[in-house]
Amino acid sequence: MEDIGNYYFFLYSIVFGSIFIFFFVSTVIYIQSRQRLFLYYSLYNFFQLSYLLLRNPFYADSLDAFFEQHRFFNYEMYAQVLYNSFLILFYKDFLDFEKFIPTFNRRSNRVLIVVNILSFTLFIMGFFIPKSFFYYYYFNFFFLPGILIYTIIALYKSLKTKTKLGYFALTGISIYSLLAFYAYYTTIAKILHPAPLAYYFLGVFLESIVFMVGIGYKIKELYKERLEAQQKIIEKQEYEKTLKLQYQTQLETQLKEREKELKTVILDAEAEKLKSITHHFESQLAQVKLQSLRNQMNPHFIFNALNSIKVYFIDNDKEKAIFYLNKFSKLIRVILESSSEDSITLKEELDILTLYMSIENLRFSQSIHFTISHPENLNLKKIKVPALLLQPFVENAIWHGLMPKEGKKSISILLLEHSDHFVLQIKDNGIGREKAQLNKKNKRLEKESLGLKLADDRLNFFNKQNHTSYRYQMIDLYDEQKNPTGTLVEFLFDF
Q1: Distance between CA atoms of 143 and 112, rounded to whole angstroms?
Q2: Which domains, and CATH codes, for the chain?
């Protein structure tokens, strides 16, 4: 028994001294690094020391009397709650539960809060209820079984963290738990008295050794992570520096391109502005020219119509003269109305042309057969044309083609609709353009040619103003013996 007692005293001294050194070292490391891991381990060692003081074999009887007298008799169990709580906190931080198993980590924190509130409350109650066994039953039948169950679950969870630190935790806690619970068993069963706590001291000592080695490994990992982090920072700084240079180069290039674009835009804007102004003046000029051409066209046609009326007065045919004047007045009214418009519908243009031909036929004793034909479903209001566009061509056909001809005289107008344009054909059976050119010897015929020139100019201005591509062509007609049989004027009006 004496050998066991000496062994017990020696082992206690070694364990207490080692725990104190661990406490001192972990406290200094925490002050330097400010990492919670070392704070938890320092507090774990502190409360472990306070518990070992109560188990001091040199002053055990006097300490028991002191704690009993001052009602601190529950502190022995309360100290175990405290150092186990900080051991759990150290264990969670050591294995990075917050990173690898966050749900279990949050639940562990809640359990620790409840356990410590309950432990503190029962500890305080011991001051007011002497000789109370509440804490004893709580500690032995609630806390110790609970800490055992939690330790088993936590060890199982730690093996899933995929880190080598879990093996340190498994080894240290397993050694401590086995020896601590065996010490508790020998204490209850009074086996190997008076040194049952020697197993506890040995477990604490071995556990601390394992954890100190684990902490060294943790520091090595942290140092490695810090070096890697610093390397990443350096690489990031180099990358950002390179990126900054690339960005500056790219920005300078973009600024030069932007400057060039702005110069181009300014030049284009000036050109567009000049183009707009030019287009505006051209539009106004075209409008003035169009009005001028229309004013030239109307007196030209009126002059020719009045010549026709003059013939009846010369012949003293008053009835025909009055009828002719009625027709002429109606035609003049239509011409004046159309003169105020830039364009009229094709139907209106053909109505004017029909009225004009009725007047001319009165003068020529209905000798000209005039027809207009088109499909029934053709919409003549669909297309716009310059006013009095067709009249000069019909007038030209009468004076140049039909007047010199003997026999039947005819003018036909045919309209057809295609997918994207109208076709209008003015066909006469006159002498043809070759003979007509030979007959152009007097001033009056020169005026007739002026009418076609004015019509051509008006069509060009109309296209420019309305962005259309109206056009016409004149085709000479021949029979099988190559004799002239008339002239065909074909207009194409796009939609």
Answers
A1: 11
A2: 2-240 (1.20.1070), 317-494 (3.30.565.10)
